[in-house]
Amino acid sequence: MTLTALALPDHCEAGATGAVIPVDIAAAKATSAVVPVAETETLDLLAAIGRVLAMDVVASLNLPPFDASAMDGYAVKADAFAGQGPWRLKVTGRIAAGDTPAQSSEGSVRILTGAPVPQGFDTVVMQEKCRVDGDSIVIDQKQRSVQNVRIAGEDVRRGESLLEAGETLKPQHLALLAGQGMAGIAVRRKIRVGLISTGNELREPGQPIHPGQIFNSNRVMLRASLDACRWAEVLDFGIVPDTREAIAAALAGAATKCDAIITTGGVSAGEEDHVTWAVGSGGGMLDVMKVAMRPGKPVKVGKLGGALFLGLPGNPNATLVTFRMIALPALRRLSGLSHTAPTWTQAVADFTYEKRPDRTEFVPVCLGAAGSDGLSRVTMLGRGSSASLRAISRADGIALLPPGVDRVEPGMRVVFEAI
Ligand SMILES: Nc1nc2c(c(=O)[nH]1)N[C@H]1C(S)=C(S)[C@@H](COP(=O)(O)OP(=O)(O)OC[C@H]3O[C@@H](n4cnc5c(N)ncnc54)[C@H](O)[C@@H]3O)O[C@H]1N2
Ligand code: MOO
């Protein structure tokens, strides 16, 4: 199981009743609950880095646009190399990158890398293979046609598909677009993600703290995670106290401004956990109430007004795991990305761990050397505690230990998501 399912075979209704549902179903419910934002904007290439491409891009130019020399050397004609060598060819001209394509078929032409091969010549001899003798070159080896020449269109052919809508734009994609002469590109608008940290005990780092209080660490973790997604914009509603009224008011405000709302804390069963109530009182509905996962069991997913609602547990490891496994795939779909699932890497466990077989467990792991099978060995960090920040801060990844397994032993195959 790798959390890629979008189909919802069973458990479709069960989530809303409060039943415990499998994590892949919960992730699929979150992802299928959203419709990608439709609005687009056209941005300069540099501003489009990391954004979601809104259109398919087809090449309008060949690359290279002309037959170009791949070496510094001499343009010659292969059929000048008849009989026995060495061959002596007069140098009749010179062409460098940026020069207008020339026409000549006499002898040879001094040519520099990137210059258009003059019409009439069909091959380039690199200068290391030529001796200059007065106004001629002497070549000892017979030459074949189309050597050291980049043929027009061999890299990109006009009319071919270059990029597809739904990809995130990486530097190399921008280079491809620039190579086509495009100065701007249409991308989906950023999704607006509201962030609400619930908890009377929370203070922001830098604020004075009293006994019984803790610093808000989830806020910076989620903000930094979302800031790294260039297709998302965070609206931070700060810390909201643990009262029904305060949380309901914060949610109502966020729902009018955001495409998605993420809360942390206040989703479990105690009398100070008001998030579920507040979503309901605002006219929202929850489709995921409890998930067979550790950490993260009390994660909530639903809708509030037009916004996707994601209620993540407050324990930092549970926040991180539910964000990456359930919230992020849904946000990616909302943004218009075509690839939404976590990226899993195969590895081999180098640890022993007893787990409950009725749930998926996610544990922080660090990567060791690869074995002879080419797969990295992974070691579990800490005890997978939901509240532990230390273990996730040292981890290279989060390993998924599937349901049905009650014990992980060294040598077992596992998958992990790099973090
Ligand atoms: N009777 C039950 N109690 C609990 C259950 C349950 O099923 N029955 N579930 C447990 C599980 S599992 C989890 S996970 C937590 C989830 O709790 P909440 O989401 O309601 O979160 P809080 O109670 O508000 O906080 C939990 C923990 O995390 C700390 N926290 C909260 N926000 C932050 C933040 N922004 N930065 C750092 N730390 C934060 C908070 O102080 C608490 O220590 O519930 C169990 N209980
Ligand atoms: O399932 Mo909770 O997320 O352990 O702490």
Automatic annotation (TrEMBL):
Write out the pathway annotation from the protein's UniProt entry. Cofactor biosynthesis; molybdopterin biosynthesis
- Top EC class, one word: transferase
Q: Which PROSITE patterns match?
A: MOCF_BIOSYNTHESIS_2
> Does the UniProt entry include the keyword NAD?
no
**Start and end of every MoaB/Mog domain?**
194-333
Q: Which cofactors go with this protein?
A: Mg(2+)
Q: Any idea of its EC number? A: 2.10.1.1
Any idea which UniProt keywords this protein has?
Magnesium, Metal-binding, Molybdenum, Molybdenum cofactor biosynthesis, Transferase
Known SUPFAM superfamilies for this protein? MoeA C-terminal domain-like, MoeA N-terminal region -like, Molybdenum cofactor biosynthesis proteins
Q: Which reaction does it catalyse?
A: adenylyl-molybdopterin + molybdate = Mo-molybdopterin + AMP + H(+)
Give the UniProt family note: Belongs to the MoeA family.
This molecule's function is given as: Catalyzes the insertion of molybdate into adenylated molybdopterin with the concomitant release of AMP.
Protein's name according to its UniProt entry: Molybdopterin molybdenumtransferase
Q: Which organism is it from?
A: Aquibium pacificus
Gene, per the UniProt record: glp
